[in-house]
Amino acid sequence: MNAPRQFFRVIALAALAGLPACGNETAPPTSGTATVSFVTPNTDDGAVLVSLIGPGVRDAQPASFAYKAYWRVVSATELRLIVVGNLAAGVVATVTVDDITKIGQYQATVLEVASRTDVVRASTAGYGVTLR
Known about the structure:
There is one protein chain. The chain has one helix spanning 2-22, and strands at 32-39, 45-53, 57-62, 68-75, 78-87, 90-97, 107-115, 128-131. It is an alpha+beta fold. The chain has one domain. β4 and β5 form a beta hairpin. The longest helix has 21 residues, at 2-22. The chain is elongated, with a radius of gyration of 24 Å. The mean pLDDT is 86.
């Protein structure tokens, strides 16, 4: 009589021990589009070269018909993007990422900027890019 109770107690404890593992299931990746916003201290920018680093950056598109976007996937975690046009502060492009829920893991860096008269800026100080 005591053996069946002991058996059920062991089964119940084993089932309870397995419950926490059920809550640790991760959701599948959610592919999505993020915006690339440009921060500039100038009013005559004509081109910007940006590095986007993060898991699964796939492609890029200009945010407006006024811009041209040229991009290349450098590695599994990096995309280089050039946006050309009469650039202004604000959204200049969009990028497709494998998991939009991990957008906080991405880094965006301005590598180089040129004026509308094709003069490369001596410094990128004051420039920035955000990814949302």
